[in-house]
Design a protein that fits this description.
Distance between the termini: 14 Å
Number of helices: 5
CATH class: Alpha Beta
CATH superfamily: Response regulator
Strand order of the largest sheet: 2-1-3-4-5
Shape: globular
Low-confidence stretches: none
Strand content: 15-25%
Order of helices and strands: EHEHEHEHEH
Number of domains: 1
Structural class: alpha/beta
CATH architecture: 3-Layer(aba) Sandwich
CATH topology: Rossmann fold
Helix content: 40-55%
């Protein structure tokens, strides 16, 4: 069973993603910010990480950099709805930093599941 780590400071969004992934059969852990997420990954050794980009504390772009230092080939799915910045611009920066896939919020459950499955298959 693949292990997925979900990092998002929005509790509602995080729980939505966690429930969808658990229903699809994934082992899921969650973190409310990048610092907690990177620490969990060090212990958990996730197969895939889903991270929001605009968060309090360690934001998502720095989280991707930190995860890539710990596990260079780790597949990361970056998600963002914008807010303080244009979502497409932030998602493009995430791709340049090593995010294997990106999704703009709001997204459908099937889009999330397809992206995670693709990252696991390509690993």
């Amino acid at each position: 069973m693949a292990r997925v780590l979900v990092i998002d400071d929005d509790e509602g969004v995080r729980h939505f993603i966690v429930r969808a992934l658990e229903r699809a059969g994934y082992e899921v852990r969650e973190a409310s910010d990048g610092t907690e997420g990177v620490g969990l990954h060090v212990v958990l050794s996730a197969d895939v990480v889903v991270t929001d980009l605009l968060m309090d504390g360690m934001e998502g772009l720095e989280t991707i950099r930190a995860l890539r230092r710990v596990t260079p080939g780790l597949p990361v799915l970056a998600i963002s709805g914008g807010g303080r910045a244009d979502a497409e611009e932030v998602l493009e920066v995430a791709r340049h930093l090593g995010a294997a896939r990106t999704l703009r919020k709001p997204f459908r459950v099937q889009e999330l599941l397809d992206a995670v499955q693709e990252l696991i298959t390509d690993r």
